């Protein structure tokens, strides 16, 4: 059996997940970063995107849609603090598609706040990707 | 002496009031339980954020961030949490009174109020309310805390205010809640004591970017915590107040029942003496 590391995903409203995993692939600001057990201590900021967790060889990767946050990596524990995190079964794909469409339209028009529309677009994309995730 | 019918009517009215207070007490008890559960769930995020702050503080100069800047205090903003409704004992009054006592004389005071009661009481007294939030849901979402934090952080960074305080009611138990006035901004550096919990990290992209990300979250989180705690206190206070009201109603009903019985007896006595009097006259 492969070695494992304790993973905690915490949002302000709840602790979404706390369990031992084999590997975490997180969307860091400067590209995706894969973490295995016994990783060197690290703190990095995360951007909106898809976080992938490998619980075991058989189960494969579990995708989660996350928004901005921080990840603290210690050899025995990974803590992910994000504003929101959703499991695939919690994602409403239809709503995400609508949100994406809306954000795209807003990005084209002048009168809307570009950064907000961009963030909404990113969030919708992360949800869609997580919900449709296949290996 | 009230007539029997009057007393009966009053008993009915007190009984229906009692029904309402009893229902409100029960509803508050349920809401309180949920609010407490939610407040507890926010703790891990807060604690872990503090852990990380402590961890990275060894590698940075904590004075560098605008949210940590201590300035001479000429302008104060207070974030005040009250309820939207009354019927919760001294809950609203206590926290409002605290703000007035502590800061009522401060020349440049701005208020951000959450809940109708704070606004309703302080606006007519000439306080400068820059933002008001009303109709706060029973279980407020994190977005609300984020919005509040956005306004306050923005004002603080633009130096529209030198210090931000938070007036809320700490939940101690269903029976006791304590109003508190605590500093929110600038953030306390004592939480970032590098001696405690110092860790050697690689930091990506760099410590300042991470600080920039973590500190505003930390503010949002403190506000969210206070918001949930105030709500729990509100329900606790309402529950206690309604419990007392239900008991008082019970007492009133007892007293009224006694006077009702007395009135009934009196009527019977009068009737009997009339009959006896009549019979006597016939002899």
Structural features, described:
The complex is a heterodimer of chains A (135) and B (283). With 135 residues, chain A is α+β, with helices and mostly antiparallel strands. Chain A has 2 domains: 82 residues, ATP Synthase, domain 1 (Sandwich), CATH 2.60.15; 41 residues, Single alpha-helices involved in coiled-coils or other helix-helix interfaces. Chain A has 2 helices and 10 strands; from the N terminus they run E-E-E-E-E-E-E-E-E-E-H-H. A 5-stranded mixed β-sheet of chain A has the order 2-1-9-8-5, with no helix packed on it. In chain A, a hairpin with a 2-residue loop joins strand 1 and strand 2. In chain A, helix 1 runs antiparallel to helix 2. The relative contact order of chain A is 0.19. Chain B has 283 residues and is of the alpha/beta class. Chain B folds into 2 domains: 61 residues, Helix Hairpins (Orthogonal Bundle); 202 residues, ATP synthase, F1 complex, gamma subunit (Pyruvate Kinase, Chain: A, domain 1), CATH 3.40.1380.10. Chain B is built from 6 helices and 6 strands. In chain B, a hairpin with a 5-residue loop joins strand 4 and strand 5. The model of chain B has no long low-confidence stretch (mean pLDDT 88). The chains are: A alpha+beta (135), B alpha/beta (283). At the A-B interface, strand 1, strand 5 and strand 8 of A face helix 2, helix 5, strand 6 and helix 6 of B. Strand 5 of chain A pairs parallel with strand 6 of chain B, so a sheet runs across the interface.
